What does this fold into?
Amino acid sequence: MSETAVLTVRDLRAHYVLSAFGINRSVSAVDGVSLRIGRNEIYGLAGESSSGKTTLIRTIAGAIRPPLRVLSGAIEFDFAGKRVAMQTATQSDLAAIRWRHLSYVMQGSMSVLNPVRRVRHSFVDFAYRHIGGDIREFLNAVRAHIGRVDLPPGVLDAYPHELSGGMRQRLAIALATICRPDFIIADEPTTALDVVVQKSVLGMIRSVQRELGSSMLFVTHDLAVHANLTDRLGIMYAGRLVEEAATAALFRQPLHPYTRHLVGSLPRIGATPPVTADLAGRPPSLADPPPGCRFHPRCPLAMPVCSEQAPDMRVVSDGHRVACFAVGVGA
Amino acid sequence: MGRTIWDLLRTNRAFAAGLVLLGLVMAVALLSFVSPYPPNDAYVVPPDVPPCWAYPLGTNSRGQDVFWQLSVAIRNTLAFGITVAAISRCLALTIGMVAGYAGGLIDRVLMSVNDTFIVIPLFPILVLFYFVMRDRMSWALLALVMACLGWAYDARLIRSVALSLRAREFTETAIFSGMSMRQVLLREHLPFVLPIVFSTTMNNINWSIGMEVTLSVLGFTDINTPTIGVMLYWANQHTAMVAGIWWWIAAPVALVVITFLGLFLLAVSMNEFIDPRSRLNRVRG
It folds into this structure.
């Protein structure tokens, strides 16, 4: 982990709070998550569906709408000395950092372009306001920029439906990077692509990120993508971060029992230890999570303490953190 | 836009037919500006002459040339329909898009007003209006009242589209990039909604013309401004049917049917325009 963190998240709790007909329901989609992302780093976030990945990054991006509510915790950005705390930032503060410093490739990035407007107009609508200056200069910059993602300048005059899925996703990435932001949040930007296109898009993300020197928070449930792209990887389970390590270390030596099963379930070529027994059950409902460690009802190593209190993230070795009582004993 | 219309003309028969019919109606309406007689003057020509070379649509019992009377009437009727449609479109667009986008309390308040307008019966209200206003009931006032009553269905339709647009990624991206509500509505959502509005505009013109004719025939409007309905009203007053002056009734009815047909065909073919994909497929394939 580098010394200067661009993003620091401390003990973040974000719940969906619903109240109708006098009944209150709270879905704890993100519960006690802390993480730091350094400069020039790609941080991956993995976890199965409804483990709170999207909620976490929506909160980080400040794109919070009811019923999502942040209950506690802090999110701080440090853009080359310009500090922004998302909890206290006003709308104009947010408008000032968005796109220039912080950009967001939404989930379903194939449809971030307005289908009834030409691509050029989407660039002008979304990004030009943050750059200003001469509009022709801006369009020239856009033309040069989409060359970086291997698109011909002609696509700017096309409608989104005339482009292929891969082209649209590359445009979405170009749109998010046009202002050379310090921090890019990408929510499953390659999920709908086949592996061939996915590989080229990932390579492109990597090269654009290297070129701009930005940091990136990359979310996908596809572990193969993480193995190819990310520097560090955090694993989420049922709204909590359960393990975090450098990507290679995490794949080589997963510590948390959930991560072990997750990595063990990946098919491997060659001498493979057979996949261990399947985990029984399914992830808990976040509206009514089990007490203590949220994984304990399915955990093969569960101890009495696991159902009483929730384990904190502890540093096991350099940059390797894990939230499990059993790991401390074994290692 | 010019390209779009040309493409539609080449590939869509209904659109071409609608355009020809409406062109015919418009030509008749425009001829009113060179009419040899002031529209409200009576006994300027011999009364009750059947269609002949001198009077192509005959003359009526009030000594007016039916053709020239008709051209002024259709001009006023069309202007009425377009005015009602324009005002009610503005209301429907604003209310529908804001309700769908803002959601929550704003949506609930606007939609309960909207639903009230949907359920109240329009015709008795308009008749009531006439009895309250009596002689002060002018053409412009009637247009305004009809516009205020005619926006509700389309506001619901537009709201449903706006609701779906609200949930799409490009809207989220627009909000994330810091666009205000006005900017999102005008720049991102309006181009989506406009083609749908074009189509419902045709229906709205049809509806308001039909309503105006109904009211006029019964004498519930300003009978001194010639419209299609007012022509029929005077024909009834002079018992044109019984007296055998059939051309006095047939001519305005035929013209208004042509207008309805033209607007209907345009509204139907607008579906092609709503979805650029189907249009492009047709043009290229």
